[in-house]
Design a protein that fits this description.
Order of helices and strands: EEHEEHHEEHEHEEEEHEHEEEH
Mean pLDDT: 97
Number of strands: 15
Number of helices: 8
Structural class: alpha+beta
Length: 286
């Protein structure tokens, strides 16, 4: 049985409780982060902590925990749950003032809810899916306009995953005004020649922590990076494609809407970037 963290307490998962009036439950009024664990250490914790603060600030929500204390909670959960490879999920909501209202409760008297739990995933780094590559479909992007805030309102991305599953594929890329925004839970890239192309940061996409690291490593490895919009048709004609996320790292994409990329197997760039990312992040893990 897992030990989880709820509002300052470490508890068995079966004893963890929050109010039925919590705004995360009633309004999706909350933010989250997912940090990977490799070799029992945290991958890019600082990046996730900084983005968490930004998300909270954008929603005018108080942060109930310091960065130092948050690191200690992460480490304690890794220790007590004996996680060698896996994930730590963190969620902070605006809390509950004991009833339901569209207006925010008074932040002076309503304490945010904070929850963390682990997911044990042996073989996370050595994923068979990464060797096989992902097949994706394209779907319309009908989400709200502030995708840069990592909120818990994940219904449409969940529906997108299910659309892909029903189509016999692994994931979906979302398209708005003719251009790819991002995957359901990842940033999207195409490769043409030696050039990596991905959408520039804005309110339209999540500012991926793994994205930032991978693009930095790509530039250090003398790969050319172009941040601009691209279409699904352009993606279908690319040499290869891939996604990045904190839980899947760098995932090659081998098929888009039934069209195989290259020879239908992971290309050269994505597996190399995955290798670099894992090597560098393991060295920097805390």
């Amino acid at each position: 049985m897992r030990t989880v963290y709820v509002n300052g307490e470490y508890l068995p998962e079966t004893e963890a409780k929050i109010s039925i009036f919590d705004r995360g439950f009633l309004m999706a009024d909350g933010v989250y982060e997912v940090t990977s664990v490799l070799d029992g250490k945290l991958i890019d914790f600082d990046g996730h902590a900084v983005r968490l603060s930004r998300s909270l600030n954008e929603l005018e929500m108080n942060n109930p925990i310091s960065k130092a204390d948050l690191l200690e909670v992460h480490r304690e959960l890794v220790r007590v749950n004996e996680i060698e490879e896996g994930l730590i999920y963190l969620q902070i909501t605006r809390g509950s003032d004991g009833d339901r209202d569209f207006a925010f409760p008074d932040p002076e008297t309503t304490v945010p809810t904070i929850v963390l739990f682990t997911q044990n995933k042996p073989g996370l780094a050595d994923s068979p899916a990464a060797k096989r590559g992902a097949k994706i479909i394209s779907i319309d992007d009908i989400r709200w306009g502030r995708r840069d805030i990592k909120t818990v309102q994940l219904l449409y991305p969940s529906m997108g995953k299910m659309m892909a599953k029903k189509a016999g594929c692994d994931d979906a890329w979302m398209v708005e005004d003719g251009f790819v925004t991002e995957g359901t839970s990842n940033n999207a890239y195409i490769v043409k020649g030696n050039k990596i192309i991905t959408r520039a940061l804005s309110n339209d996409i999540l500012h991926g922590i793994t994205r930032a690291a991978v693009l930095r490593f790509a530039r250090e490895a003398q790969m050319e990076v172009e941040e601009r919009n691209f279409t699904i048709d352009e993606a279908k004609q690319a040499d290869e494609a891939f996604t990045t996320s904190a839980s899947a790292f760098v995932m090659p994409v081998v098929e888009i809407d039934g069209v195989a990329l290259g020879d239908g197997a992971p290309g050269r760039v994505a597996p190399r970037l995955r290798e670099i990312y894992l090597d560098e992040m393991r060295k920097a893990a805390i």
